Amino acid sequence: MTWMIYGANGYTGRLVADLAIDRGERPVLAGRDPAKVAAVATPRGLPHRTFDLADPAAVDAGLRGIDVVAHCAGPFSATSAPMVEGCLRAGAHYLDITGEIDVFEAVFARHEQARSAGSVLLPGAGFDVVPTDCLAAMVAAELPTATHLDLAFQASGGISGGTVKSALEGAAIGGRARIDGEVRTVPLAWRRREVPFPSGPRRVTSLPWGDVSTAYRSTGIPNITTFAHLPGLDRAGQRSLGLSQALMRTRVVQRLGQAAIGLVVRGPGKATRSRSWVEVYAEATDDAGRSVSAALIGPDTYELTADAVLRAVHVLQSGPPEPGAHTPSTAFGADFVRRLHGVRVIEPARR
């Protein structure tokens, strides 16, 4: 079977391509810019194609003979829909590395179309949101009566330009949470709490993470808040956050910010990634006051993403789940995260 990395000239796309080569695979590399794609593919000896997602006919030609697409070209708010449509027309499986709530919701809305096409749609096949989604499924299985779910992470290391661009877009929207089964807009940093990460307790602040969408589909828990340990945000006041959000909404700030990011943000190097780590915490509670928590420790988020994408592609090629739109845990089971290199799960515990 033949699979493709679209956005192969981007930071994460190159990481996925290099890991694929290390594991003896030869994906087709693709993207919009012929020179940039060739600059990645030619020295690696990999086949490559170029096509613009704005041209459906070009997408159809570009996906001819492709069974699985690993879509790594963000921001996914702009690129996911045309690639999903192309995969549905081609009957190919689709996965991406988004963390954008609205993108998840849009992909999940295509569940019946995917079933009819025989395609699996798997948004969030990287750090956004494999570890959090799998932990969420683990604690939900231990507490079927759960009504609330808190998910939190902290990570070291750097960040890529694509991730920063998506974060800039998200900052303009504000906070999001799942409340009584619905995705709702809430103030930025509307909740703060302390989380017992494996390395020790940390104060975390709510932010709009992809699990607001995905964890609901994986667990059915109607109230979900996502958090991160971000020292600057943890100390910021509600007034200053409100002013920042209003500024981020302006067209000129978005335009200038995206341009600046493209020029100066390159993503962490190999040495930085080798020293980096991530910790994830999940806690489910019910109305009777019972709770179950679990945690994990993993490698650098970009290394984890590349590994998760490769493993997801392998499963989609060899024994895919039922066609339709999936989260990582509904596609591969909650234990999928245990297969990832360098991940250690701290088993669910009741309180």
Give the structure's gist in a few sentences:
The chain has helices spanning 11-22, 34-44, 56-62, 76-90, 101-108, 111-117, 130-142, 161-173, 211-219, 231-235, 238-248, 251-264, 270-275, 301-318, 328-332, and strands at 3-6, 28-31, 48-50, 68-71, 93-96, 120-122, 148-155, 175-179, 182-186, 192-197, 200-206, 223-228, 277-285, 291-299, 324-325, 344-350. It is α/β, with parallel strands linked by helices.
What does this molecule look like?
This protein folds into 2 domains: 3-127 and 304-333, Rossmann fold; 130-301 and 338-350, Dihydrodipicolinate Reductase, domain 2, CATH 3.30.360.10. The protein has a 7-stranded parallel sheet, sandwiched between helices. It has a 7-stranded mixed sheet with strand order 10-11-12-7-13-14-16. With 351 residues, the chain is of the alpha/beta class. The model is unreliable at 159-170, 240-244 and 256-265 (pLDDT under 50). It has helices at residues 11-22, 34-44, 56-62, 76-90, 101-108, 111-117, 130-142, 161-173, 211-219, 231-235, 238-248, 251-264, 270-275, 301-318, 328-332; strands spanning 3-6, 28-31, 48-50, 68-71, 93-96, 120-122, 148-155, 175-179, 182-186, 192-197, 200-206, 223-228, 277-285, 291-299, 324-325, 344-350. Helices cover 44% and strands 25% of the residues. The chain is globular, with a radius of gyration of 19 Å. α5 packs across α9. Its EC number is 1.5.1.7. InterPro entries: NAD(P)-bd_dom_sf, Sacchrp_dh_NADP-bd. This is Saccharopine dehydrogenase (NAD+, L-lysine-forming).
